[in-house]
Design goal:
single chain; mainly alpha; 72% helix
Length: 196
């Protein structure tokens, strides 16, 4: 149907809608194609930025991480005034980390934290920073970052998991007494949470 109305003024809008729907249905190949058409055929439209973002998401789910990184970078570089740039930085950091580029991922995460003070992704970003240090085996720094997360975002649903991760970090550092204290705290404060 889309090809039939290609000359219509709402074609770009329909492509975006189709791409979003395919993404929601986990039809990532179809989503990728729709978003690629938007950026190729309508690079100056208001939809191009969103198309780059969601194309990056489709690539991410397809495990085409190099393509995802390129799409998120294009969204950031070509559209510096878009309101969802924080999402592009967040996803770029997550994708970089998946490809083993830890220092680049941390750099992008820290950039988001510094430059997007009202972003709704700040809590997840701070949690991700801590998680990256944990997964790299830098347990001392992970504990520090998780503690920052808990202090700043104490209402977050990720707090119980952060507490468990602190316990795990202490355990991995062979500080078993501190690990036990943290696990007990989690069991007392979050007895019905799945992270426990």
């Amino acid at each position: 149907i889309l090809e039939k109305y290609k000359s219509s003024s709402i074609y770009a809008n329909a492509l975006i809608g189709y791409g979003w729907s395919a993404l929601a249905l986990e039809e990532y190949d179809s989503s990728e194609i729709a978003f690629e058409k938007v950026v190729l055929e309508f690079p100056q439209s208001s939809f191009a930025f969103l198309a780059y973002l969601r194309m990056g998401d489709a690539y991410f789910h397809l495990k085409k991480y190099g393509n995802a990184i390129a799409a998120y970078r294009k969204a950031i570089e070509k559209y510096p005034n878009e309101f969802q740039r924080d999402y592009a930085y967040y996803q770029l950091a997550q994708t970089l980390y998946r490809t083993g580029k830890s220092s680049d991922a941390l750099e992008q995460s820290r950039y988001l934290m510094r430059n997007f003070p009202s972003s709704e992704l700040r809590d997840e970003t701070q949690f991700s920073i801590a998680k990256m240090y944990f997964q790299e085996g830098n347990y001392k720094r992970a504990i520090e970052e998780y503690e920052i997360f808990i202090a700043r975002y104490w209402k977050s649903t990720l707090v119980p998991l952060a507490c468990v991760e602190i316990g795990d970090a202490y355990y991995n550092m062979q500080k078993y007494d501190k690990a036990v204290q943290m696990y007990q705290k989690v069991l007392q404060n979050y007895p019905m949470n799945n992270a426990v």
